[in-house]
Amino acid sequence: MDIATLAAIFTAGFVVMTPVGPVSSMCIRRALVYGPRAGIAAGAGDAVAVAIYASIGVTGSGLLPHLLAPYTTAWHVVVSVVLVGVAIIMWRARPRLSQSASPSRAHLMGGFGAALAIALANPADIVLFAALFAALGIVVHSPLEHVLFFASFFAGGVVYWVVLALFLNRWRAGLTTARVMWLNRVCSCFMLIGAVASLVSLARATS
Asked: Which of helix, strand or coil describes residue 26?
């Protein structure tokens, strides 16, 4: 696996992080409310999940989606319920601004775990990644190449969140409780949109 291939994988890891969805909106919210470290920690959780599914997808294996097929209905319902639950919690959360410049380790790990769990709730990404890397002509064979692939893709995702979190830090000084409230509500809307999208996907799959 040459440098050009690793650079392409790194770039793919960076680019796939850019669409705003339920997980990314949560990471952005944490970066604005709690600071860059919290945003980067949550973003790293997102990057780990996406890198895992990308690593599975690059092998061209449809084993995991096939194994999950009998549980598609339950899976989509559970994902939708979780997203709605998170949306309600965010919507009803009392707006507050973090006064600490250094979030606790437990707080950082909580953000990492939440982003990882929600991002892992969409194994359909494996099929998309399989198509993406087939189009790019990227193939992995040996265990070493799998490690290099995962590391490069993950690094691209983390770099995206580092850059974005540091960029968003410029706006933290202007945050007020009212703006945090609206930020919570925007994130809640993204969660609800994700829940609806999951149910629509289920309806199409069963029709």
From this structure: helix
Helices (H) and strands (E) in the chain, counts: 9, 0
Q: 165 lies in which domain range?
A: 3-206
Q: How far apart are CA 148 and CA 186, in angstroms?
A: 37
pLDDT of 17-37, one tens digit each? 887 778 888 898 888 888 899
Yes or no: say if 173 and 30 are a contact pair by the CB < 8 Å rule.
Answer: no
- Average pLDDT over the chain reads 79
DSSP state of 121: T
Decide if 185 contacts 40 (C-beta within 8 A): no
Counted domains in the chain: 1
Residue 47 has what pLDDT? 93
Model pTM score: 0.75
The residue among 8, 49, 6 whose CA lies nearest residue 27 is: 49
CA 133 → CA 58, 60, 126, 142, distances in Å? 6, 9, 11, 16
